[in-house]
Structure formats: structure tokens, C-alpha cells
Amino acid sequence: MKKYKYYLMAIIGVALVFSGCGNGGTKGSSNGALGSSAAEKVYVAPGQQDEFYAFLSGGYSGNLTVYGLPSGRMFKEIPVFSQFPTSGYGYSEETKPMLNTSFGFVPWDDAHHPDISQTNGELDGRWIFINGNNTPRIARISLSTFETEEIIEIPNSAGNHSSSFITENTEYVVAGTRFSVPVPQRDMPINEYKSNFKGALTFISVEPEHGQLDIKFQLLMPGFNYDLSHPGRGDSHGWFFFTTYNTEEANSLMEVNSSQNDKDFIAAVNWKKIEEYVNSGGGTKMAADYAHNVYDEGTHTGTTTMKKEVLTVDPTKVPGAVFFLPTPKSPHGCDVDPSGQYIIGNGKLSADLTVHSFDKMIAAIDGKKFDGEAYGIPILKFEDVLAGTVKSGGLGPLHTEFDGQGNAYTTFFISSEVVKWKLGTWEVVDRKPTFYSVGHLMIPGGNSRKPFGKYVVAMNKITKDRYLPTGPEMEHSAQIYDISGEKMELIYDFPTHGEPHYAAGCPAELLAPNSKKIYRLDDNKHPYAVANPSEARVERNGKEVHIYMSTIRSHFTPDNIEGIKVGDEVYFHITNHEQDFDVPHGFSIIGQNTSELLVMPGQTKTSIWKPKKVGVWPFYCTDFCSALHQEMQGYVRVSPA
Ligand code: CUK
Ligand code: CUA
User: Fold this and answer.
1) Which helix (H) or strand (E) holds 77?
2) pLDDT at 288 (0 to 100)
3) CA-closest residue to ligand 1 atom 6
């Protein structure tokens, strides 16, 4: 309770100190006063392209947005967990299956942490993964097509927060549960949480060639909250680290009851050891329902498979596989430096950052120097694993990234700043305010062995006066700092979409050359595709009507459709026969409640329409595709049933 009071006092104190920033509308004085050199640094001239891609999670928008660095220009929103009318994602028959879960169709989620695939610990630019927090899911997105190719649901999990971080050869994408829950789920009193609930840490294998996901095993841990995670790399490759809070196992009044222990844990998991155990027949199969949704590029169609079983592992059955590292004050971020030597746990309720040493951890394990156990899992001694403490002088540390030059950058939510400090000496070398209340930060490659330490992007939770007012609801705000010098320099603000929690970035040259420009018509294996406009037709099968429709500038074939009756189920299968890059056609029909379709050249997309009224009803192309776009239209005649 004492600590909680201190925390409140700290917040109030900081609010007073920083009240000059933002709350009072002190124009000009608090905005980091940018000069013309900052303008030059972010200016990307018309027709020129950015140096980096930045992928920002959309938070409760459920999607992923793509920006350029240093310009801060937004290029695209990639729909992942949410329906997206702009492209018909989650509305078209081809993409609806991507949003199936064991709870039914769930067309949104809360997407927090993107991570780019790696080879030998360096970004390889093949895929980007992102987690859905709410209805636990992991998505894999192609960085060639920038489309969601796969979504796998995670059973036995709830609040899929310490996800989706990947091992250094993309062997696994890892998902940890925020909420511990009864496993398997069952009807039981909530206040019997303690020692009965479990926290699942899920290791999902990634097939090396095509990236297909498969749950390899779930480690069923004690009922703590597993907040964030990071892979080991270099020397620590083969390990994975997870911050925990609520080691008190409280089930209500969490802000007080889960903050009692002076230290929670970082859980260190030797996944290679568990992999061996599982490969030699270890683990227990458990009944579990979860959806596995795969989008096939050949047919341009998603399919859902419902899975029935998952392999679980009891950590106490694999000696030497799991240890707890005591870490002060409810740690949030769990970040491993590029060498893999340092594991940084940021206690939310602390001013200091705790840095653990991987080598010391191994030495302590080898020497069996334990300080008791929790549910059969050995606890290492804090002093034995501590590499150093960063006396930050900030409040509310959350996340840390690295520049590859021996520096770390940590965000402080309460004191609204990014603090730069040195690995090894633990001294603070610079600090810059953020506007305001920063969550994560991102350096391209900052989550790998080879960061590109030129810029850091701070993602701020509170926007206040940074932009022209748009009413009570503001978009969130990100800021770009030049970190190429000794001191950080704030060079740009840009608004973001949804709530970016984390982001991932990479050099443009890694992705741009491999970016797919067009789907080839010859490769289109969609069952309702037509190879050319002359094959367009209407087929009736009972009450189902299938319209095989072609689009090419500037007409639909067929464009006058008769013989449809009220009560029919009409499928418009639209194939785009354009052969030129970036010439989509759209399709929409009056009264349609399933959004329009956007069909890229070489693709086929399907929309269902259930006519309710007799009449002659227009449809039209929704994407301005040629000078005769407004001529791109047609009619459907609907007769009485
Ligand atoms: S996060 Cu998800 S609550 Cu600090 Cu990674 Cu924002
Ligand atoms: Cu096709 Cu407008």
C-alpha cells in the first residue's frame, strides 16, 4: 500500500513539473522549437522516396499502417484483424474466412506489436507478424504483397499481449498471455484464481519457405500476468524472456493488489530445451478449439480450418528450461540488446531500469544458486543476475530500443521523455521530452542484432495541442528524433491512426525491390475467375445466382442482368482483366450491406447481394479508373419472387 501511495504522489508531482507541457496551451514554448535544419532532415522532395519503411500497429483499429521515414507520410493501412471497407477486406467472400475464430466471426481486434522476420538475427524483410490482443490471434503479413496471409488463433490465452516477437531465425513467433485463465476454461469461482489459473506462453513455428504457422507447444506457466517478451539473440539465442507482473496473483483491485511485491519476475525460457523435449515425445495433448485461417495467393481466397488439439508443456517437467529473474516494480518492457547479453526490465513503478546479464544468469544456473522457487520454477538471486542499474531520473519507464552503437533509448510515460543511456556504463547521456506520454519507441531494426540507428520514432499516447483541434477526440501522435549524433534532435511530428503501441521499421531497399506490382491473370486459380471477358456469364443454381463478371476499362461484362428475383442470393464474382500496375476497379450495388469490393488487376473478388425490392437497380465502379470511370456502370433487373 505504501508503494502505491508513492506512485500516486509521483504522478501528481510529475504532473506539476510538466504542466507547462501541453495542458496550458503554452504555444511555441514547449514544442521543441524546430529549426530549418530539422526541416531539411525530414524533407523528401516530390517524387523522391523515403529511406525507411515504418510499420505502426493500429491498436484498437486492429490494423497495421505503413509510413515512410523520415517524411512521416502514411502510405497504406493494411487490414489485418478488422474489416476494412476500402478494400472490402473482411467483407468479400474471399477474405471473410480470415476473421473466423472459435468464438465465431470476430471482425476487429487490438493489435499491439509488429515484428519483422529475421535471418541470423537481422531483418530479412519477408514477413511482418502482429498480435491480436482481444481474441488472441497472431497474423502473418507478406512484405511482398503487403497483405495478410495467415491468422492463427491462440487457445488457452487471453489478452495476447507479450506477442508477437520472433526468434532470430524466425523459427518461432511467440505469444504470451496477459491474463492468466483457467486452463482448460471452465466454470469456477473467480476468487479461486490463485494457484489455479495458468499463463500460456505459446511457441508457434514458422515454416521456413512459405511462413505457414503451426502451434508447436504451449508452456503452461503459473498464473501471473505475462506482459511483454523478447527473444535472446547471439549468445542468448535459444532463450526467450517474458516480463511478469501480478506475481501476487490478485484477481481484483489490481492497481493496488498486484503492486504489493517489491519484485516481480522476468521469466527466462530455454525454448531449445523444450523443443528437444517435445520432439522426443514430451508434453501433453489437450483438447482446444482454435481457428487457423490461411489466404492462398493462387486462388486469392482465405479458408478456415478449426483445430481441436494443442500440445501443452508443464515447465516443471523439463529441468533447466525455465527460471525466474527477480525484477523490481511491475516490469513492463522486456528488451534484449543487439548482442543478446543484456535483458532490460523496466519497472513501471520505478525510476531505475534493471539490466540483467545473460552470462551471469547462465553462471548462476550452472552453480545452482537459487533463491527458492515459485510453483516448482527456480528463482535466481537478484544480485547474481544483475548487470547494472540505470539511474534514469525519469518516471514510468516502459520500453527500450537500441541503436547498434552501444546506446539504449528508454521511454518514460509519466515524465514524458526518451532517455538515452550507455550499455555497460549505465550512464544517462541525453534526454528529450516527448509530446506527450510516450509508450513504445522504434528504431528500424532496433529489435535485432543490426539496428539502423538513424532515427527513433516515439509513439505518444496523448496528443493535446500538437495539431489543429479536431474536437474532443484527437488522433494519436508520433515524433521522429534524429539520433545520428550524440544528442537526440526532435525533427518531426506526425499523426497516427488508431493507437500505435509498437512499430517495426526497416530500410526501404530491403523491401521495395521485392514488392509485388501485379497479380498475373494466368496465375489466377480462383474457382470463379473468367480467363477473358468473353467467358463472362450468369449461372443459376436454385436460389443462388453466380455472376462471372469481367472488368476492364471502362465497362463491366455483363452490364445488363435480368432474371434475378427477390429472395435470390446473388454472387458477383468480379475478375479484373487489366494488365497494368495499379489500375483497380471497384464494384458496388445499391442497398449492399457488405461494403464495396476493390479488385486489383489479375484478381477475382466476390460480393453477395440479396435483393429485397423489385426494380431495376444500378451498380457501378467505385474506383476512379479512367476518364470514362463514370460510364463504368450497369443494371440488375429484379423481378417478383
Ligand atoms: S504496449 Cu500494449 S499496452 Cu507498452 Cu507494448 Cu501499449
Ligand atoms: Cu473501373 Cu472506375
Assistant:
1) strand 74-78
2) 98
3) 501
Q: What is the pLDDT of residues 232-269, one digit of tens each?
A: 999 999 999 999 999 999 999 988 998 999 999 999 99
Q: Residue 32: inside a domain, yes or no?
A: no
What is the distance in A from the centroid of ligand 1 to the CA of 499? Answer: 10
Spatial distance between the Cα atoms of 112 and 131, rounded to a whole number of angstroms: 6
Which residue's alpha carbon is at the smallest distance from atom 3 of ligand 1?
501
The x, y and z cell numbers of residue 221, run together, are 506457466
pTM of the model: 0.94
Asked if residue 191 and residue 238 are part of one domain, the reply reads yes
Amino acid identity at 489: E
The reply to whether ligand 2 has any atom less than 6 angstroms from the CB of 625 is yes
Mean pLDDT of the chain: 94
| Stretch 102-121: mean pLDDT | 98
| Residue 502, ligand 1, Cβ within 6 A | yes
Q: Would you say residue 34 has pLDDT above 70?
A: no
User: Quick one: which ligand is closest to 500's CA?
Assistant: 1
Rounded distance from Cα 452 to ligand 1 centre (Å) = 23
What is the reported pLDDT for 33?
58
The pLDDT tens digits for 483-513 are 999 999 999 999 999 999 999 999 999 999 9
What is the domain count for the chain? 2
Ligand nearest to the CA of 459: 1
Report how far ligand 2's centroid is from the alpha carbon of 628 (Å). 8
Closest residue by Cα to atom 1, ligand 2, is 585
- ipTM entry: 0.94
* Residues 6 or more apart whose Cβ sits within 8 Å of residue 590: 617, 618, 619
Q: How far does residue 631's CA lie from ligand 2's centre (Å)?
A: 8
Say if 412 falls within a structural domain. Answer: yes
Phi/psi of residue 17, nearest 5 degrees: -60, -40
Pocket flag, ligand 1, residue 440 (CB < 6 Å): yes
Question: Residue 105: which CATH number?
Answer: 2.130.10.10
To 5 degrees, how large is the angle CA 585–CA 590–CA 592? 80
Shared-domain flag, residues 224 and 345: yes
Range of the domain at 582: 521-639
Q: Are residues 582 and 510 in the same domain?
A: no
